[in-house]
Amino acid sequence: MAFDVLAELEARANERYTPEGAYAWCRAVTKQRASNFYYAFAILPPAKRNAIYATYAFCGYVDDIADELTDRARQEREIALARERLAGCYAGDRRGPLFVALGDAIDRFGVPQPYFEELISGVEMDFTINRYATWSDLEQYCYRVASVVGQICVAIFGSKPHPRAGEFVASMGLGLQIVNIMRDVREDAARGRVYFPADELAAHGLTAEDILACRHDDRFAAMMAAQGGRARRYFALGRRLLPLLDVRSRMCVNVLQGVYAELLTRIEARNYDMFSERVRLSGPEKVAAIARLWTGAALLGPARSG
């Protein structure tokens, strides 16, 4: 783990922070743990950028409870504490850098508490669920851990009214999470998790045991191609969110979806072999992609009504 958020929060729980110092801590967490995310949002005005980094730090905090802890009893204690700290944050009781920063962001942008509660519920699913029967089952998980984060981001960005805006946000998150699942299949298998729906595995002659054994063959490639097709459909719908955002916000969101679309293209180019090495963009490739995607988003036209 690159940055132990749980340990940091425990060590700093009683330290006093100004909002500026708390945001600096959240920026450090984001930069160390997710450079794609960090640089994608660097173009935002300071208040929005800081709020996004505080949101990411909170996501990292609850993610680590599921991914880095192995004792179930401790996981349950920590997730209960996360809920307690979140409720306290909304009530004005803000301790340690994460919740001082998050509380300031909530005050500034009015992010609804149920969004963060839904995110915690999604992370909690990983405690007890490591198989999914159907896409409908998996979709709920993806919505909670990814689409809800998109809803939080849009609450911070602000957006033009549109009858399908929520659908566009949810679709963008679903596309991103599907690519995450495809990219991280080896790491998830090491944790005993298989996120691909069982009925879709069976349709390609696969079982969960094939995934856990990291078997790459034509069956696996065909199943992955179907997942990639689903992700691209969600991306296409999710991109309709972009014209609803101000220029800087849409540039940031376009970087995220564009980088993940590029990861998907690379996954496809290697015939879905995700077991030999992790797919990633190099530093110079990220810089080039960010510049291209920022420019592309800035040139988008107005939103359609339908």
Structure description:
- With 306 residues, the chain is mainly alpha-helical.
- The chain has 15 helices and no strands.
- It has helices at residues 5-12, 19-33, 35-40, 46-67, 72-91, 96-109, 113-128, 135-157, 165-183, 185-190, 198-203, 208-212, 218-238, 247-269, 283-298.
- The longest helix has 23 residues, at 135-157.
- The chain starts with a helix and ends in an 8-residue tail after the last helix.
- The mean pLDDT is 92.
Number of strands: 0
Largest sheet: none
- Please tally the helical runs, counting DSSP H or I stretches of 4 or more residues: 15
Which residues form runs of ≥5 with pLDDT under 50?
A: none
Estimate the global geometry from the Cα principal axes.
globular
Oligomer: single chain
> What gyration radius follows from the Cα positions, in whole Å?
19 Å
